[in-house]
Amino acid sequence: MYYNRKNSKEEMLKNSMNFAPLLLLQLLLIAIAVQYSTADESFDVRQHLSTVSRYGIVKDIADDSFVPSLNLDQCTPIHLNLVARHGTRAPTKKRIRELEAFAIRLEVLVRDVKEQKQSLDKIPAWLMGWNSPWKGKSTGGELISEGEDELYHLGIRVREQFPSLFSEEYHPAIYSIKATQVPRASASAVAFGMGLFSGKGKLGPGGHRAFAVTSESRASDTVLRFHDCCQSYKDFRRSQEPTVKKLKEPILDEITHELVKQYGLNFTKQDVSSLWFLCKQEASLLNITNQACSLFSPAEVSLLEWADDLELFILKGYGNSLNYRMGVPLLEDVIQSMEQAIKAKEEGYAPGSYEKARLRFAHAETLLPFSCLIGLFLEESEFELIQREQTLQYPPKPPKTRNWRGNLVAPFAGNNMLVLYSCTSDNSSKYFVKVLHNERPIPIPGCNGSDSCPFEVFKERIAAPHLKHDYNSLCNVNSEQEKKDSSPSMFSQMFGWIFSQKNSDTPTQKVEL
């Protein structure tokens, strides 16, 4: 009897430990629900879609308490660096196929309810007979009209904000426009250029003009597609995906349980993940919020958004220094362009003989690391940790507030502008760098919380700790060392081939944003 009682106690303890995380998550959902209960009518799911957010919906969500702390009225902008993500895009081909498969899955779930002669009253009408809006499309990932509009009007606003920078006659050496070879990025560059130079040419009723957009090969573009050329990063990302999945699992478990109870359909965690993806696509691309998104409460949306932001943090943000250190070629390019602008100013170059803007169009995988390199979305204490190459804590769960939000860090058409100013006042420094994120001044921990600081301070305090790292060493050191240290035997090669064939049908989890 003693052993039975002991085993019983151990079993009870084990069960209570398994139940504890779910209980904690239920309490968390209640806390978030209380927070949103008085504001359900004003809750806009389109503002909670992480990196799938439309620019116009989220660009003005910011900390209004921040006041630009440096007066640059006696300064003149002499150069602008822009790093922008492409605009709103269609789902990729892979995602389109997944949505078509999900339509079949929903059909099976509804049929199961009918076969069990259960009531269909709980099932939302839209869900019965649902088909993907992208059904039958053989292509995907392209910039859609909303994305064109985002970049076109961004170009107009940039010119209006910095008229002195864009007063010159266009020349590619003065206004350098670069994009990755991915069509949605180059299309974004074209849309931006059409807005930036509208009325400056003689083409059509809009007075458009031709301009050049240049790209490097995907295989060697270490400035804008450094993530694609970095083997160490690919290995790291692959190693962390199980960790991310495990961190997200309790949230999916709890929400799955709630949806099964509420709608009477035997949803799995994968189904809930697909419904959340569908919600984001419908809300962002089609402005449909009363179908997939309506299945989730504001509290559940907030937790799903946090889970997306957490994945972003771990795999593409401050979760590991390699995520952003591999962006050193881009940071070097930005610093070099500023130094060239200062030299042109100091040596009195003639107008029209030097670059005034370097404009780049790429991906979330470009914008996110660059934001981390210059220390955005950090408290000053966290910035000090980054400088010492120490890890940061994960973004806190709702209802706690957090700086790291995908909808602000890298929405569609999200952007960083670094504006170099020449000052003629009694300032101790002649040149200042001002940072704008999504067109708004943003505090820079490396500049003591200001949105501006002397160029030399920016260069030495923010850029230099990163620029001491070499891209090739960061990204190829492991693979190069393996080549030097070992030459695999025929036996190990044979085993490697067998297992690679076995796993060759396993789909990759990488999704480029």
Give structural notes.
This protein starts with a helix and ends in an 11-residue tail after the last helix. α4 (145-161) packs across α5. The chain is built from 16 helices and 7 strands. A hairpin with a 7-residue loop joins β4 (415-423) and β5 (431-437). The chain has helices spanning 2-37, 55-58, 93-115, 145-161, 183-196, 231-263, 269-286, 298-316, 321-325, 328-346, 364-373, 380-387, 406-409, 455-467, 471-485, 490-502, and strands at residues 75-85, 175-179, 357-362, 415-423, 431-437, 440-441, 452-454. Strands 1, 2, 3, 4, 5, 6 and 7 form a 7-stranded mixed beta sheet that branches. It has 513 residues and is an alpha/beta fold. It is found in: Cell membrane. Its EC number is 3.1.3.62, 3.1.3.80. It is an enzyme of class 3 (hydrolase). Keywords: Cell membrane, Glycoprotein, Hydrolase, Membrane, Signal. Its main location: membrane.
- Outline type: globular
Strand content: 5-15%
Kindly provide the radius of gyration, computed on alpha-carbon positions and rounded to a whole number of angstroms.
26 Å
- The amount of helix comes to 40-55%
Q: How many helices in DSSP terms? A: 16
- Note the main sheet: 7 strands, mixed
The SSE string, one letter per element, is: HHEHHEHHHHHHEHHHEEEEHHH
Enzyme class: hydrolase
Keywords: Cell membrane, Glycoprotein, Hydrolase, Membrane, Signal
EC number: 3.1.3.62, 3.1.3.80
Main location: membrane
